[in-house]
Amino acid sequence: MSVTIYHNPDCGTSRNTLAMIRQSGVEPTIIEYLKTPPSRERLKELVAAMDIQVRALLREKGTPFHELGLADPKWTDDELIDQMLAHPILINRPIVVAPKGVKLCRPSEAVLDLLPNPHIGRFVKEDGEIIEA
Fold it and tell me: Which residue range is the domain that position 23 belongs to?
């Protein structure tokens, strides 16, 4: 089974999601999107596959979201994508692509819906929260 994670190793949610994928027995393709951002076309494909609005993929915390004024509804989807391409940190994460679908895995246990073996047993997140799956 082919699983891809758009990953930020500095993000606890992304690290937990990656660990859950691995605990399920899958070694995913890892794309560190801050180093290798998706293309405009790929970003549009991911948004469409997740069936979300472009704005829903924007990350505010720890990004230039407020400095750029991205909360203003004047921004079109194409303009928001331009900003995400110029500042990949604005892309919320982790995004997981699997045969069962594409999902922004926040919280990290949302990834279980995409895995062929979602019964990963006991998993302890970095913050100490226990997931029994």
Answer: 1-33+93-133
Task: Tell me what the mean pLDDT of segment 72-89 comes to.
Answer: 97
Work out the average pLDDT over 68-81: 98
Catalytic residue among 3, 5, 6, 11, which?
Answer: 11
Alpha-carbon distance of 10 to 17, in angstroms, equals 13
Please indicate whether residue 105 is annotated as part of the active site.
Answer: no
- Domain contains 50: no
User: pTM for the complete prediction?
Assistant: 0.95
107: domain CATH number? 3.40.30.10
Tens digit of each residue's pLDDT (9 = 90 or more) over 88-109: 999 999 999 999 999 999 999 9
